[in-house]
Amino acid sequence: MANAKVVKSGGGEAMSHRLTLRMTETDYEKLAYWANKKGMSINEFVPVLLDQYVSIQNGDYDLPVLEIRRLNQLCEHMDVLSQNVAALENTVHSGLKSLVTMTSGDNYLLDN
Q1: Could you tell me if 19 and 36 are in contact, meaning their C-beta atoms sit under 8 angstroms apart?
Q2: 59 — alpha (psi -120 to 50), left (phi > 0) or beta?
């Protein structure tokens, strides 16, 4: 738009572009609902959505609480599994050591 009106945003940055788009009634209702839930107008909310989308695409975002809980749960399960494997390894080693000792003839149980 050649003769766009320059307006200052809340952050002090000059707003010089106007965006017009068409969307379904359902999409508009979703947009209006979430903008209202955040206490913003739709015009204020759209740049926030853009910033969040770019952050997600760049991998720069906080994990929601549910994802953090699930990740912690999986880490705990991996710790328990590694402890179980270590215990089984010790059991197998001690069992094999007992068998080797018994068959080598050095065991007191084999004496007459």
Answers
A1: no
A2: left
Task: Note whether 56 and 64 are within 8 A (CB).
Answer: no
Could you tell me the two tokens for 84? 């179980």
Quick check: pTM over 0.85? no
Q: How confident is the model at residue 78 (pLDDT cuts 50, 70, 90)?
A: very high
The alpha carbons of the chain give a radius of gyration, in whole angstroms, of 33
Per-domain boundaries in the chain: 21-61, 65-107
Contact 11, 3 (CB under 8 A): no
C-alpha dihedral over 44, 31, 63, 69, to 10 degrees? 140
Q: What is the DSSP string of 46-70?
A: HHHHHHHHHHHHTT--PPPHHHHHH
Structure tokens at 54: 């770019």
